[in-house]
Design brief:
The structure holds two protein chains of two kinds.
Chain A: H1 4-11, H2 30-35, H3 43-74, H4 78-82, H5 96-102, H6 105-137, H7 144-156, H8 161-170, H9 178-181, H10 188-201, H11 204-212, H12 217-228, H13 230-246, H14 249-254, H15 263-272, H16 284-319, H17 321-325
Helix pairs in contact in A: 3-16, 5-16, 6-10, 6-13, 6-15, 10-13, 13-16, 15-16
Chain B: H1 28-38, H2 40-63, H3 76-79, H4 86-93, H5 97-115, H6 117-128, H7 132-143, H8 150-161, H9 167-174, H10 186-214, H11 218-226, H12 231-256, H13 264-269, H14 275-278, H15 281-291, H16 295-324
Classes of the chains: A mainly alpha, B mainly alpha.
């Protein structure tokens, strides 16, 4: 179980959302717990454990404090935020920030667009990934080795941003929804995961039996392979979905009309370029305070969908944990 | 990559044709053809993804020739005049050249070095904890930032470090230090970039090490216990050697990708004040190519970066194979 797959997973940072798949996060170390009941601990060990708890509490605090600060600020009054009076608890509780954020038409359009790109994009991505991974997983697929090489090579060497832009341009996809979905549709890493999973989780005899029964390869895929591959499908779908939801680079490159912008690009314009959408407030002072507050509420609004499905993802990761652990 | 190396039982698709085997079986070529014919549906299925790779991955590689041309829209990629290495020359002779290459290199190297030990420490510490709820909580919380988008992480960083309303200046105030404009000062750029990255990914990487730790043979721990090893000794003599292969591969991959630093975050953290440290090759390519419409020059810079990275990857893989016997492919 010295999973080599799991490892590359992270390192190939150039591939998208690369491999959040290994996580045996929930199941780690169970084995040891049973045998690890100690009779007595030496003083050295006790001091050491104190250090461990301190260290982990520090880690916890470092991650949590910024998140709590954002949450607290988002529920504070515009004035409290602007004067920097909020630390970890809302000051002068108000939901003004959320009212402004949710009445911003750019944000709403962006949200809808992102939902569209994420759902349609994920569907297309998963379909294409399975369409190549399934044949590659079959041992009697002649030419599979060469095809794998052709695909994996694109991980090592890429044409680059500008040459890819020219392709998208020549296909007439600039400033269309397709540009957000097709150019990054298939991830090499996801193909490898899917192929490895299918190869190891579906017994060869199943194909032989299906063949004897006269089932075609497509039929086998639909009624045998896919039902068996649900945990893997869930994991790669989540990887694609999170990549789509979080990306802004393709939108920056290919889109011009703001009614096509995904949420992340809208957020970038408001949060980082400070071009807040038209608010109906009167004074400059109030405008500026609201602009500050709006940022915090927007961060919360856009992050909540992802963090809401996070426990659900974790559950799937434990199911799919063996995937990364199987040797390629 | 390594896992990409096909482990397919190799059916030779011809080329080395041996017409008839001694035992009278059909040649491998005709077996192959028969298999292809029987599984035509598999090839049909593979067609769409292969077309995808052709159009969006291989055509751009061919389009890369504009790096050697003076591309203009009217003549197109193939009609534009060849200029040889002029684009590369003008990049290298650009006064900004060394600064950009240096920024790219230092930033990625800093990321690799800083992001390496922290997940290991986190995983080792988590592995010691018996208290289940605490362990789960730390794991879940530290993993969560991995799912937050770059745009949000960057804007959180900017808000956090803002001299006017940020929490950081409040904290500095406690020590009697006045507020600092972190993002306006180029000297801070790299630290901000790297440590916000560590903040975002440490929990995720720790999970990989946790998996490696869980895979260590339990009998080693039994033996350590019998020998009366303390926790620290157990970590040094069992845990660390156990995760060494994982750590080595992650480090190698990091080094191999050292020029492949992402565009997204650096671009978002950039502002006119910190540009002297924050301009890296990917952001430069974007600005030259799409904002200034100098496609050929931008393609040349991009190609320059891709080639250096490919060479680095191949070299690192070669060294890793020599030293440890384990390569990536």
């Amino acid at each position: 179980m010295a999973d080599p797959t799991a490892v590359q997973n992270d390192g190939t940072g150039n591939s998208r959302g690369s491999g959040a798949i290994t996580p045996t996060m929930v199941s780690t170390g169970k084995r040891r717990r049973r045998s690890g009941r100690r009779i007595r601990e030496s003083n050295v060990d006790r001091v050491f454990m104190l250090g461990v708890y301190l260290l982990l509490s520090t880690f916890l605090a470092v991650v949590l404090i910024p998140l709590l600060h954002i949450l607290a600020s988002s529920f504070s009054s515009p004035n409290a935020v602007s004067s920097g009076r909020v630390t970890l608890w809302p000051v002068e509780f108000s939901i003004r920030g959320y009212e402004v954020a949710l009445s911003n038409s750019q944000v709403i359009t962006g949200f809808a667009n992102s939902l569209f790109y994420t759902s349609v994009g994920t569907f297309i991505s998963v379909s294409l990934t399975v369409a190549i991974a399934y044949p590659l997983s079959r041992r009697d697929f002649v030419g599979g080795g060469i095809i794998t090489r052709i695909i994996v090579f694109t991980m090592l060497f890429a044409g680059g941003v500008i040459p890819t832009y020219l392709v998208v341009q020549s296909l007439g996809m600039l400033d269309t929804r397709w540009a957000m979905i097709l150019p990054q549709a298939v991830g090499v890493w996801q193909v490898i995961i899917a192929r490895t999973y299918l190869r190891h989780s579906i017994p060869e005899e199943l194909f032989e039996a299906a063949e004897i029964d006269g089932a075609s390869d497509l039929r086998v895929l639909w009624s045998v392979v896919l039902p068996l591959a649900k945990p893997m499908l869930a994991v790669i779908a989540l990887m694609y979905a999170i990549y789509q939801w979080n990306s802004y680079f393709d939108a920056l490159l290919y889109l011009k009309s703001d009614d096509l912008y995904p949420l992340q690009l809208v957020l970038r314009n408001i949060l980082i370029l400070n071009t807040e959408g038209g608010t109906d407030t009167t004074t400059m002072m109030e405008r500026r305070q609201l602009a500050d507050l709006l940022k915090y509420s927007l961060i919360v609004i856009s992050t909540v969908p992802v963090l809401l499905i996070y426990p659900f993802i974790a559950r799937h990761f434990t199911k799919g944990a063996t995937m990364g652990a199987i040797k390629g | 990559m390594a896992s990409g190396a096909p482990v397919t039982p190799r059916i030779d698709v011809g080329t080395t044709s041996e017409p008839l085997r001694p035992n009278g079986h059909r040649s491998s070529r005709s077996v192959a053809i028969r298999k292809i014919r029987r599984h035509w549906q598999l090839y049909l299925l593979a067609l769409a993804p292969l077309v995808y790779f052709l159009i969006f991955k291989y055509v751009p590689m061919v389009n890369g020739v504009i790096a050697f041309k003076d591309y203009n829209v009217v003549d197109g990629i193939w009609g534009s005049p060849w200029v040889g290495l002029d684009n590369f020359q003008s990049f290298v002779e650009n006064p900004a050249f060394w600064r950009i290459v240096r920024n790219t290199f230092i930033l990625s190297a800093y990321v690799v070095i800083a992001a390496f030990p922290i997940p290991i420490i986190l995983a080792l510490a988590l592995n010691e904890v018996r208290h289940r709820l605490f362990k789960r909580t730390v794991q879940m919380v530290t993993f969560a930032p991995y799912f937050i988008s770059t745009v949000i992480v960057v804007s959180m960083t900017i808000l956090f470090l803002s001299p006017r309303i940020g929490l950081a200046s409040d904290a500095l105030g406690l020590f009697g230090i006045g507020s600092i404009d972190f993002l306006g000062n180029p000297d801070y750029f790299r630290h901000i970039y790297v440590w916000s990255d560590v903040w975002q990914t440490a929990g995720y990487s720790a999970v990989i090490y946790m998996a490696a730790l869980a895979a260590i043979d339990p009998s080693l721990y039994e033996a350590a216990k019998v020998d009366g090893a303390s926790r620290i000794q157990k970590i040094i003599h069992v845990d660390l050697p156990g995760i060494m292969p994982t750590a080595a591969i992650l480090l190698i991959l990091g080094v191999g990708n050292i020029m492949a630093i992402g565009f997204e975050k650096a671009f978002l953290l950039q502002n006119p004040l910190n540009l002297s440290h924050s301009e890296i090759i990917p952001t430069y390519v974007y600005k030259t190519g799409l904002l200034n419409a100098d496609f050929s020059l931008a393609a040349a810079v991009g190609l320059f970066n891709s080639v250096i990275n490919l060479v680095l990857l191949v070299a690192v893989n070669f060294i890793a194979k020599r030293v440890s016997g384990h390569g990536l492919w």
